[in-house]
Design brief:
Layout lengths: L1 H38 L4 H30 L4 H22 L11 H4 L7 H22 L6 H17 L3 H8 L7 H30 L2 H20 L3 H24 L4
Helix pairs in contact: 1-2, 2-3, 2-5, 3-5, 3-6, 5-6, 6-8, 8-9, 9-10
């Protein structure tokens, strides 16, 4: 058995090597882009899009290493999974640096930031959003349900949906949503449906984290902010009844938070 284990480990190391080398090249590429940004501030938004994309690629490399470990050694490679998780956080942070991390705000408050990537089409932005969302889902699935990072993923997914929403010009999207003849109509419809769904999930995620784990006031407040963001998206999509329901739900959550504070449950 010891010989089989040693052979399996040797095979794993052999198959893992090219992916580790690819990770090193990816890290070097990240460093080179950051150096370029520090020397030349032009086109920073587009360069940070490249950085976010590179971090997604790096995460998939680590995920592949973990998959090899499961296949050949019958054990998860937690080091690879942790590095993948960190890479996806970095991807989100790079996007936040472009379009801000404002959860619920009028588009006018971050419009000048989004203008950095004005030449990036809606279709391309939607592709980036789906790509990052898939990468996060794959890493979460690889960790499994009983991971200590469960509530950390609540934050990661919420921050992800914030940048996904902020990458879209909601003011323009609202107009396109009502014009089936527009060339970007289908993309905008699918994009809005996606961020609407994920924003609702982010609100519920923070509410669950508050109730089941942290009891922290800021978690519940974030849940309420995501409800407000969800309502804003519903209004853009002319779904007035759902917008009104979100408004009522937010009031209930605010009342509960205030009640919990009085009882000493929230901290």
């Amino acid at each position: 058995m010891a010989k089989i284990a040693a052979e399996s480990r040797e095979l794993f190391n052999s198959k893992m090597r090219p992916y580790k080398e690819a990770v090193e090249k990816s890290l070097e590429k990240e460093k080179d882009i950051l150096t370029l940004i520090s020397k030349d501030s032009s086109g920073v938004g587009y360069r940070k899009l490249l950085l976010a994309d590179e971090m997604m690629y790096e995460a998939t490399l680590y995920l592949t290493i973990n998959n090899l470990s499961v296949e050949l050694l019958d054990v998860k490679n937690t080091d690879a999974l942790n590095e993948a998780r960190k890479a996806l956080y970095k991807a989100v942070i790079y996007l936040e640096e472009i379009v801000t991390n404002l959860i619920d705000a009028p588009y006018s408050e971050y419009e000048d930031k989004v203008a950095q990537i004005s030449n990036t089409s809606i279709e391309k932005r939607y592709f980036i959003v789906r790509k990052l969302g898939l990468a996060i889902r794959l890493i979460m699935d690889a960790y499994g349900d009983n991971t200590k990072w469960k509530w950390s993923f609540t934050e990661l997914q919420a921050r992800f949906v914030t940048v996904a929403k902020n990458m879209l010009n909601l003011r323009e999207a609202g107009k396109i949503f009502l014009d089936p003849r527009h060339p970007d109509y289908d993309t905008v419809v699918f994009y809005l449906r996606l961020i609407k769904k994920m924003t609702s999930q982010a609100a519920d995620g923070y509410r669950d984290r508050y109730e089941l784990s942290t009891h922290r006031i800021d978690d519940m407040r974030n849940g309420i902010l995501y409800l407000a963001s969800y309502r804003r998206i519903c209004i853009v999509m002319t779904e007035t009844e759902e917008a009104e329901e979100a408004k009522k739900k937010a009031i209930v959550w605010k009342d509960k938070l205030e009640d919990d504070r009085k009882k000493g449950f929230a901290k």
